[in-house]
Structures are given as C-alpha cells and as structure tokens.
Amino acid sequence: MRTKKLAYPIPVFEFVALMAMMMALVALSIDSLLPALPEIAVSLNQEGSNDIQLIISMLFLGLAIGQMIYGTLSDFIGRKPAVYLGLLLFFLGCLISFFAEILPVMLAGRLLQGIGLAAPRIISIALIRDQYEGSVMAKVMSFVMSIFIIVPAIAPALGQGVLLFANWRFIFLLLSLVAVIILIWFMLRQPETLEAENRMPFSLNRIFKAIGQICSNRVALGYTIVAGFVASMFLGFLSSIQQVFEAYGKAEIFAGGFAVFALFIGSASLLNAKIVVRKGMRFIVNVALGILFSISLIYLALSFFGQLDFWVVTIFLVISLFCVGLLFGNLNALAMEPLGHVAGIGSSLVGSLSTFISVPFGILIGLSFNGTAIPLITGFLVFSLLSLGTIFWIGKAGKG
C-alpha cells in the first residue's frame, strides 16, 4: 500500500518506467561508450595506451562521491530539486566530454557525469520508498529492475549504431538528449514526495556519524568491503573487455557478446530473487564466491599450457558474471542488516564506500591488460580470494 497520498500520483506503470530510466542512465553512460574506446583513444592521442580505460573508471569515482552526498541533500532540499541538480551536472559533464581534445579534460567531464548520475540513481530508490511499502514496494522495485536489466544489454549496440553514422562525440549528445527527456518527464509528471515539514537539515556530521557506525560494525564493514572487492572485478571487466575482444580479433561481435554477458548478470539477479528466501543470502554469497575463486584458479592454471581460446575465455566470463549477478544485491543487503536505524543514509554510504574501494582496484585490473585475458582472470582470482578471507574475518558476528 502507499505510505502517503500524493496530490497528483502518476499511474504505476508510468512511475515504474520513469524510475527505470533514471536508474538505467548510469548503465547507458558506461556501456554505450565501450565500442567507441578505440576511436576515442585515437582522437585523444592515447592509441595503444591502457589509460583510455580511465574514461570508465572516472565515472565510477564520480558515482562514489555523489552517492555520499545526494541522500542527505535530498532529505534537506527535497527529492525533485536534488534530481534537477544531478541531471544538470550530468549534462554539463557530457558537454565537457563532447568538446574534449585531451584525456584530462575528458576525465574531468566523466567525473562530473558520475557525480551527477548519483542523484537519479540514489533518489529513484528514495522515491519508491516514499510512495510504497511492504510487498507493493518489492513488486514495484522488481518491475523497475526488470526494465533496468535490458539497458546494459542494448547500450553497446546503441553506441555502435551512433558510430555507424557519426563520430564518438555524438554518443555524448545522445546521452545529453536522454538526460533532457528524463528531466522534462520527471519535472512535469513526478510529484514531490518529501513535503517541506518532513525535511531534515543538511548535516556533514550526520554523514560522518553514519560512516562511523558502518566502520565500527564488523558485519556492515565486512560486507561493504566484500561488495567493493566484487565491484573491483566488475570494473576491471568493464574497463578491459573491449580490448579483450579486440585482442582476439572479435571486435565486430563486441556489442552482441556484451549483451549476452549483461543478460547473464540480469538473469542471475532474477534467479536470486526467487531462491534467496529459501537458501539465504549468506549461503548464496559463499557459493558464488567459491565458484568464482575455483573457476579463476582453474583457468589461470590452464593458461600455463598455452593461450586460452576466445570461446574458452567467454565461458569463463559467462560463469563469473553470473556469480557477480548473484552477489551484488545480497552483499548490499547483508551490509545493511545492522544499519536499520540509519537505513536511508546507510544505503547511500554503503554504496559509496564500496565504490571508493572498487575504483583503484578496478583501475589496477584494467591497466594490467597485456593483450590477453590473463590479468582479468587474475583479478577475479585475487579479489574472490580476498572476499572469502573477509567473510571469514566477519566470522560469528555475521550470523544472525
């Protein structure tokens, strides 16, 4: 049921579509650029350099910064003004990237895009929580995520489509256009869900206090760290996967191949929703990490006998990314379990801290690319092992 009556509530199907678009703008901003990385590298005089991968990583860094701010900011100024601010920053970041002639300017634009994107990503969840509760909220969230899953599968194809008719700069125009459409739709149709009398003053002290509560709780901190390690693997994958396809001479099927990977991640999330009540979050996390570590170890051992075939590597990635899909939601939920008393800001900070952890390690995995998939497999091996070690450290404190 609704938690409150809105003056002009929009139909549920429209609300679901709008929230899905707001969340999906993050995936679109990352994945649509992947096919264009070689062309961007040439334009920015970075041909043959792994540094071009920082175009992906900087957006994640911006997300980490933004997630730490927007939850509290939207509690202070309202949901809608915070989204307006985020989309404006994203639009400005796209313009900077569009006109960039050197890599540092491009990275500044991507950082600003990430900071802006954190607003629709975080506040869309707050909007759902403001208007719905219980099983209805879960149902709405499931519909939103079902639509969201489609975007990473088609985003590289959209980017590839732009490249057929124009250069890479027009991908940023496409992203800007999508942001403007979302802004107008949101402005005209979505009511404010946080009335002035229910708002709280902005407080940095509140943010630091919540960080202290996370860091002082072994369960919350431990699973936040594990979420960061898993995100490191995923960021390393995103940063180097286009180069892996190119190294194997398969660049022409990159968009289709990435769609398959994205659908496996999405299908894992849907499977998790069906089995998590029966099996439990901790069981699924332990099994998924165990599979990740085992298959990475096997593949790394096989690599000593010669270069791994492209399709053999593809099987590794499909299995590994399916496991990652099982892990994301469960790890964030486990980190949040002890933080019910600060659930709103806690959710933002868990996401922010785990992303801060993932950025340097994801960059390290990506920049280690050497023309083979070995650095990526090694990254999966190391961070799955570190994740298992962290869960062992959580120990009995993690048992509920």
Automatic annotation (TrEMBL):
Topology relative to the membrane: Multi-pass membrane protein
UniProt-listed SUPFAM superfamilies: MFS general substrate transporter (SSF103473)
Listed transmembrane segments: 12-32, 52-70, 82-105, 111-128, 140-158, 170-188, 219-241, 253-271, 283-304, 310-331, 343-367, 373-394
Location within or outside the cell: Membrane
Keyword Membrane: yes
Residues covered by the Major facilitator superfamily (MFS) profile domain: 15-399
Keywords, comma-separated and alphabetical: Membrane, Transmembrane, Transmembrane helix, Transport
One Pfam family per UniProt: MFS_1
Classification via CDD domains: MFS_MdfA_MDR_like (cd17320)
Primary location recorded for the protein, binned into one broad class: membrane
PANTHER family, per database record: MAJOR FACILITATOR SUPERFAMILY (PTHR23502), POLYAMINE TRANSPORTER 2-RELATED (PTHR23502:SF132)
The protein's name: MFS transporter
Organism of derivation: Fulvivirga kasyanovii
